[in-house]
Design a protein that fits this description.
Layout (H helix, E strand, L loop, with lengths): L5 H6 L19 H4 L12 H7 L46 H5 L18 H13 L16 H12 L32 H5 L4 H7 L13 H7 L6 H7 L7 H5 L5 H6 L18 H7 L2 E3 L21 H4 L8 E3 L4 E2 L2 H7 L4 E4 L10 E3 L18 E4 L2 E3 L6 E3 L6 E2 L4 E2 L6 H4 L2 E5 L13 E7 L2 H6 L1 H12 L10 E7 L3 E5 L8 E5 L15 E2 L4 H14 L10 H12 L4 E7 L34 H11 L2 E9 L5 H4 L1 H4 L5 E5 L7 H16 L3 E10 L3 E7 L3 E4 L2 E7 L5 E7 L8 E12 L4 E13 L2 H6 L3 H18 L2 H23 L8 E3 L5 H9 L12 H13 L2 H8 L2 E4 L9 E3 L2 E3 L4 E2 L11 E5 L3 E6 L5 H8 L20 H15 L6 E5 L6 H6 L12 H12 L2
Parallel strand pairs: 3-26, 5-11, 12-13, 12-17, 17-18, 18-19, 33-34
Antiparallel strand pairs: 1-27, 2-4, 4-24, 6-7, 7-8, 9-10, 11-26, 13-14, 13-16, 14-15, 20-23, 20-25, 21-24, 22-23, 25-26, 28-31, 28-32, 29-30, 32-33
Helix pairs in contact: 5-9, 18-19, 18-24, 20-21, 26-27, 26-28, 26-29, 27-28, 27-34, 31-32
The structure holds zinc ion.
Zinc ion (ZN) binds next to loops.
Amino acid sequence: MMSNSGINSQNGTGGSSHVNGPFQIPATLNPQAQGCVAAPPGFPTMSPSKASLLPDQDYYTPRPYQSAPPRVSLYHSPSSSSVPSRPPEGPLQPFSPAKPAVHNHRVPLSPPLQSSPIVPVSNSLSQHHQQPRTGDPYMDNQVTPSSNPGFSQPSMAYSSGNVTPPSFCNALQSSGPPPAPAGNILMPVPRRIPTAHDITRAPTSSDQHEMGTMTGPYPPQPGQMNKKASTAYPSLVPGYQSMLGTPQTLPMHPLTQPYSSLPQQYCQPSVGPAQLSPTMSTLSLQSQTSEALRVMNLLQERTLLPPGPIPAPTPCLPQDLQKLNCSPEVFRSTLTSIPQTQSLLNKAKLPLGLLLHPFKDLSQLPVVTSSTIVRCRSCRTYINPFVSFLDQRRWKCNLCYRVNDVPEEFMYNPVSKSYGEPHKRPEVQNATIEFIAPSEYMLRPPQPAVYLFLLDVSHNAVETGYLDVVCQSLLENLNSLPGDTRTKIGFVTFDSMIHFYNLQDGLSQPQMLIVSDLEDIFLPTPDSLLVNLSECKELVRDLLKSLPQMFTKTMETHSALGPALQAAFKLMSPTGGRVTVFQTQLPNLGVGALKSREDPNQRASAKDVQHLSPATDFYKKLALDCSGQQVAVDLFLLSAQYCDLATLGCISRYSAGSVYFYPSYHSQHNPAQTERFQKDLKRYLTRKIGFEAVMRIRCTKGLSIHTFHGNFFVRSTDLLSLPNVNPDAGFAVQMSIEENLMDMQVVSFQAALLYTSSKGERRIRVHTMCLPVVNSMSDIFAGADVQAIIGLLASMAVDRSVTASLSDARDAMTNAAIDSLMSYRTSVLTMQQPGLLAPACLCLFPLYILALLKQKAFRTGTSTRLDDRVFAMCQLKYQPLAYLMPMIHPSLYRLDDLTDEGALNVSDCTIPQPRMLQLTVEKLSRDGAFLMDTGSDLYLWVGRNCNPSFLSQVLGVQNYVNVPLNMNLLPELDTAESTRTRAFIGWLKEQRPFYPVLHIIRDESPHKTSFMQNMIEDRTESALSYYEFLLHVQQQVSK
Ligand SMILES: [Zn+2]
């Protein structure tokens, strides 16, 4: 451990008794002894303790603190007079232990089943949920109520579960104040009121064959819904059945007793690892469980962070099943043990959901080419490691329990080249697998890779110098764009007019075509604007070389982004593909023009933040149109000024695109940002891409999908429309439990991503995850995955901020921690003890919640530009969890004493593994150098008295004052220290697909503020310290 001397004692204001000191709990802090409410921890607002919290008193405010106020320790309850009263307009103090009601009254803390709403679940939501369920023709993955009278029982049960949705109120969603205006444009996932768009949209190849189920009228009439739901299903399987040549009647046996006979079924002679033993619950995972449930008093255990990265918890499954399970890197659940009933889930007050990274770059991916892709005839689940083989010829679906025949082809194992061992096929041995789809999976020939670049060339854009970077990067990577001989490319530039470029083969040089009528955009020469890249590569190169010069003299300040996007849509509609937009200012001409909505004076306000929802629905509507034509729009926003990302971002969000944001971009004045842009662009241009994709999530009967998070359009309850899919996109899914899972020992989740590769192959990537079902509160808690929980809560809170308010979202997040710990206390702990008690697996929960409250997306009272905040929210919604965690809770390391002890060896390179430190200035000392990894930035803070050998051997400077104020590169010095440091930082950078900029900072550097703002455990003027937060939580939990 680092000493906590350092700073405070050196700057003369600290001493050993400062506020955030080690958690030595004096007796008086024992809440029981104190009568907890009456003895607040002090809530010392700013002044008394602040000086001692920070290396520099003047960091947060310029006011000096020489008149050392009484040393208020959190651990000694100060008299109330020592707590300065807050000025009326002062920073929001949402967790005032003294007046909890003030801020919390709007969101009930913990009434059973109604607490801490994060996603407003109102009737309207439930209705949204209803309509698609019964009305959507894509709904094929539900267990099939059929017209066969023999099935009426399950069918009834299912639909009744469907109609009354009390279960939608899962632990974190309540019927509490339901602020969600129905039809709000930013309701992130419209719970699927079929829009005009998706009703009129013609189904394309993406839909049908992943599903194999498109039958019946489209769209359904509302009045027909119930009828359809109960009659349509038998006809849902024909695609597959005809492939198999099997009759349409479903065997009676498997469905007549589908859900109650599991244990017996599993008792059948085991044919392989896909079998479950009924004794699994007693298997030897008890030590794992007991460690997860080890009781910790958070008020006393100061050191919660493990020294290194936190691994995902392992589901409590028998080893032979677990070793086949999907990697948590691609598929992860907030609860690795699924509660048997919704009421148990409600009682635990933990969110249930999945986090996915479905198209992640994988080093090993089994790919199967087969003319028959084996799927359940009933629910269309792909065969997977968790099905059971009743014998060699029959397998039972692990999602709907239907018994299916094993096709003859499947009897042969191409890997072992043996016959008669279907359970050893790669499909049954790999939870992640990719199929090359036969022609049944396409309605039209797979589309080529089509790339359109839409470039802002207004005066403002040219002035930033970004055009050079984009054109240069394209020139360098033109041959690396994913694609084949069919790849097409095109360019459109815009200011107050739209400029098209004729690149047709045979021209001696590119031809610019200008369209000035923005009212009714037309394509001047529709056939020669998107051209075959390999045939027209020279013209493309010519254009890229000349483009940056073409507009250098422009005085045009207008930006007609809306009309330009309309042009792009027209151009791309016939094929689908990817539109890449570079925008540098608020669009101010034509349709979609916007006005600034940001009041810079409100950036540090503690009040609610306005304008988080879009100003117009133009961009969303256009995105839906794009989605319907398999066009995704990616947005690169490079701007010094407010650009209304909340509105512009919709174009990417609903078309399954990505958003990149480079505030204060300038090629000359901001080299670090430029480097980031260049690196990101290279990755963007060359990374894998899937076109015309859909993703469907299936789950064992009884579970259902509640809400999706990410960038996409929800086509039906379980189907996402993804015109493009990229390897860096993450998704989250909230789940609810609609029917009791009483007879099940395990449940499974399957994500199937059907896409067209850049080489024109139709492929299906399938991930299947299996999790145990439990019926005790302690087992539920033991399986909690705190990072996944935080990832899901963050997404939910973003929705909540937009549909209700930021303060609502903040309250709800706090309540999430309070409620679950309260539930743990009352339902799991048998012996009451003083303190704030948490199971070991959730010990970081309050810390992470506090981190979220201090994150750019949700913080209040700290100056935050609106676009920065909205971008942080975007990231919370679509970054995969692994990249998200450092954005929520950065990692801090000491770097001036790196050793090779415990180092990793990665391709013959030694990577030191310094210990992760708590995010508090106590861990800093002036004689050291510390690295903070926030995901998108790396800050290397150099102390004033930093070890001279670090300065010279790593930074290459003689002394502290020679460290430049803006330094972004470590010199490559031929010293052991330099090698180690660069190896470690390089290794960190490789962990993510985007490029984090390194800022080497000292006390006088401008980035020091950002560094210090991430000291989450410390108090600021507007936010509690970690310890204060714990006390607040404890107080609420003990109520
Ligand atoms: Zn099935």
